Amino acid sequence: MKDQTDIPALMAEIGARAKAAAAELAHASAERKHAALIAAADAVWTRRDEIISANAKDMEFGRQKGLTDAMMDRLRLDEGRIQGIVDGLRTVAEQKDPVGDTIAEWDMPSGLRIRRVRTPLGVVGVIYESRPNVTADAGALCLKAGNAVILRGGSESFHSSAAIHACLVEGLKAANLPEDAVQRVPTRDRAAVSEMLQMTGTIDVIVPRGGKGLVGLVQREARVPVFAHLEGICHVYVDKSADPDKARAVVLNAKTRRTGICGSAECLLVHRDIAETLGQQIVDDLIAAGVEVRARGLKGSVEAADSDFGTEFLDMKIAAKVVDDIDEAIAHIREFGSSHTEAILTEDAEAVARFFERVDSAIVMHNASTQFADGGEFGMGAEIGIATGKMHARGPVGAEQLTSFKYLVVGDGTLRP
Amino acid sequence: MKDQTDIPALMAEIGARAKAAAAELAHASAERKHAALIAAADAVWTRRDEIISANAKDMEFGRQKGLTDAMMDRLRLDEGRIQGIVDGLRTVAEQKDPVGDTIAEWDMPSGLRIRRVRTPLGVVGVIYESRPNVTADAGALCLKAGNAVILRGGSESFHSSAAIHACLVEGLKAANLPEDAVQRVPTRDRAAVSEMLQMTGTIDVIVPRGGKGLVGLVQREARVPVFAHLEGICHVYVDKSADPDKARAVVLNAKTRRTGICGSAECLLVHRDIAETLGQQIVDDLIAAGVEVRARGLKGSVEAADSDFGTEFLDMKIAAKVVDDIDEAIAHIREFGSSHTEAILTEDAEAVARFFERVDSAIVMHNASTQFADGGEFGMGAEIGIATGKMHARGPVGAEQLTSFKYLVVGDGTLRP
User: Fold this and answer.
1) Which residues, 6 or more positions from A321, have their beta carbon under 8 angstroms from its beta carbon?
2) Which residue from B minimizes the CA distance to A379?
3) CB contact under 8 A, B366 and A413
4) For the segment A16-30, what is each residue's pLDDT rounded down to a tens digit?
5) Cβ–Cβ contacts within 10 Å for residue B109, how many?
6) 66-105 in chain B: CB under 8 A from chain A
7) Burial A236-250 (b: 16+ CB within 10 A, else e)
8) Residue A196 pairs with which residues in a beta bridge?
9) What is the pLDDT of residue B3?
10) Does the beta carbon of B212 lie under 8 angstroms from any beta carbon of chain A?
């Protein structure tokens, strides 16, 4: 989609404004940021009819464009979902302000006292698809961490995002913070996305939220650092020492609670010693729940193909395989996983220790459902995304991980010999 | 410089070996890594004559190539400097092992216990110029943090680096760790550098060590994340409430202790109220010490040109300027600084607080010499470099900042509602 605007000029201006706002925000008080978020939450609730009308335009556009039911569902806003947005803003507002926090502090023999304190990252770019609530979540988390943000929502949620964005700006104004702290790219032109990915002088990090197509594009093309996960190919390994009741319940929850989220289990690994007993029971449970089990070494719905391992189904489907021991499970995860979330189900502490030590995914779980892979469930209030890279942020990314740090060093006329 | 080797194939092989070694190293015990470093230190001392002979070849090559005296000095190894390398290896060995450290730990209402623990980053690439000791420092820090490292030393230090590298490998063997944990690119062909910068699938981070030419090239060309600083344009601001004795001593130390290091002061900012008294005294001190002061608003050696501000002299030269107040000093630093290290000299706590809050450099100091900007002086044992970016690492980069983290989550059959 193209329009008449000079995109590079537009983005350069947005970038310059974001940088100026970031410099101011960096030393804005915690109270003022809190006030802005509360005022934004109030504005979203007060202006809910306006937001729902804007959303109706997007829904109409979506219908004409022939969006899938799943996409239409992600796009849709009603009073309940707007209440969710309001709650999200309030939750982030009440979180601890990370800026200025002392991370570490120590004295040196030279007489220097060194303190490492959190600072904002600077400017965050968020590129997302149809969910309009990302506008509020991402805007709120960036603001909390003292960062300016440039939001580039999907063309499907254009009007809804604009209406929510207006409420965030209202919050900023109410708290006397720079309006440019939360900017929205006011065009559907895709050239704006390409431009953002190259803005190394302005944007400190890009967070893409959406399907594999979008995330892959951003990861390939961005010159700016990226916090993202391409896929969530989450594994659950049922050890020979698993508790049968816990294991059956956890696997069912990990696969079926919601199949469309990145923390949904996509592959079941079962220890050979319990494959015919507990393992088969779990597979039967899954089939009974309506899951298509693509199995190898187990009686499933169908026989697994090689390509089923390492596939993110995001559906009522799961790959399943018998492994000889925990090391084969770990090796399988290393080969086919996406470094997102993996779980071991066992009562054997040694097996847990080995799995925790050797599986290098962002989140490694014991006797818990992979569906807990979520910033809210980690106590972060919200998340701007989940990262599977190893640089800077990893796992659910909340306000704290949207910060950097600096060293404050105090001497008393201290000279280096 | 070119040779006959197929560089992409060579680097792909080195990369694959590094990845395999990293997977093993990630769960190597602290004891074993310690043993490898101690054995490497012993080997460097035992084989010092061999290293000095290798260095003689490099010195001969350097003379033929017409290296400057400063470069020749950086290249030269003698028994004293080898003792320094040995001490460095031992210091890193005795540092706390960061891998597995719990960074944070908390419980959630769901019943989950969440722990954030340090993990190695993976594979580090180090690209450096003439100093052969970087081979030992970088190799040791990477190993300490459980990372595999690919070392690409300058062609000037080719033989010296090879000899030191052999000692590191001896240490790895003695501790029964994979030899490929510390690899050296065995060619002077510059194509190897270009190749490293693109190895996103293998190398997790690149650390360039050297002049502005090398660092700029790496920052421009790398697709792999980079920890670096392009320049150290460090400022010292003498506030109106500075203690005269401390201020005079600190400025002199900050400029003249060593002029060729990145923490050397390059610009003096003086508050208008004390410009003619303490300010002029400091300028006179500097001139008396042989420093060329390029001054504006003060009587210096010469009048400052616009281009003197924001210049990294790395020499007995300094720019100096009178500012109206602390805010002008902060604005000057924001415009001309390189986010490396800045100091305020004052006895006024409010001025310190303002400077600490508003100057966003990696290191911000009060009443201390900027020459303290160094990993050793920060208690890190050594440093692989100093970073001025805001992603992941910042300031002196020691073993701890060469790590990532993961979340370990413990439940008891815990399901997400």
Assistant:
1) A267, A268, A269, A270, A295, A296, A297, A298, A304, A309, A332
2) B108
3) no
4) 999 999 999 999 999
5) 7
6) 100
7) bbbbbbbbeebbbbb
8) none
9) 56
10) no
Identity of residue B143: L
Nearest to B383 by CA among B168, B215, B138: B138
Tens-place pLDDT, residues A320-355 = 999 999 999 999 999 999 999 999 999 999 999 999
Side chain identity, residue B81? R
- Write the CA distances from A321 to A241, A271, B62, integer angstroms: 17, 9, 60
Cα–Cα nearest to B200, from A402, A262, A226, A194 = A226
**pLDDT category of residue B4 using cuts at 50, 70 and 90:** low
Kindly determine whether residue B27 and residue A358, on different chains, have CB atoms separated by under 8 Å: yes
CA dist A210 and A212 (Å) reads 7
Tokens representing residue A238 in the block: 């049922």
**Residue from A390, A403, A405 to probe the interface with B (highest B Cβ count within 10 Å):** A390
- Strands lying side by side in the sheet with A317-323: A302-303, A292-296, A317-323, A265-271, A234-238, A341-345, A363-368, B403-414, B113-120, B102-107
Regions of chain A short of the pLDDT cut 50:
1
Kindly tell me the burial class for residue B168, based on how many C-beta atoms sit within 10 Å of its own C-beta (0-12, 13-18, 19 or more).
buried
Which phi and psi angles does B126 have, rounded to 5°?
-120, 125
Which of B358, B409, B414 to mutate against chain A (most A CBs within 10 Å)?
B409
Phi first, then psi, for residue A51 (nearest 5°) are -65, -40
User: Are B334 and A23 a contacting pair at CB < 8 A?
Assistant: yes
**Nearest CA-CA distance, residue A54 and chain B, Å:** 32
Domains and CATH numbers, chain A: 7-227+393-409 (3.40.605.10), 234-372 (3.40.309.10)
Burial class (CB in 10 A: 0-12, 13-18, 19+), B69: exposed
User: What whole-number distance in Å separates Cα of residue B146 and Cα of residue B33?
Assistant: 8
Q: Which of B352, B367, B372 sits opposite A416 (nearest CB)?
A: B372
Torsion angle (degrees, nearest 10) of CA B166, B167, B169, B174: 140
B386, B340 in Cβ contact below 8 A? yes
* Assembly ipTM: 0.95
Average pLDDT for chain A: 95
Do residues A182 and A144 lie in contact, with contact meaning Cβ atoms separated by under 8 Å?
A: no
- Both structure tokens of A270: 């079962």
Tell me the helix, strand and coil percentages in chain A, rounded to 5. Answer: 45, 20, 35
User: What does the block give as tokens for A57?
Assistant: 């335009």
Please answer whether residues A120 and A128 qualify as being in contact, where contact means their C-beta atoms are separated by less than 8 angstroms. Answer: no
Tokens of B129: 């110029």
| Cross-chain residue pair B122–A413, CB shorter than 8 Å | no
| Phi, psi for residue B50 in degrees, rounded to 5 | -60, -40
Task: Please enumerate in sequence order all residues whose Cβ is within 8 A of that of A229, keeping only pairs 6 or more positions apart, or say none.
Answer: A215, A262, A338, A339, A340, A362, A385, A386, A387, A388
Residue to substitute from A407, A410, A412, interface B, most B β-carbons within 10 A: A407
Chain B residue numbers with beta carbons less than 8 Å from the beta carbon of A100 are 357
Structure tokens belonging to residue B102? 């719990």
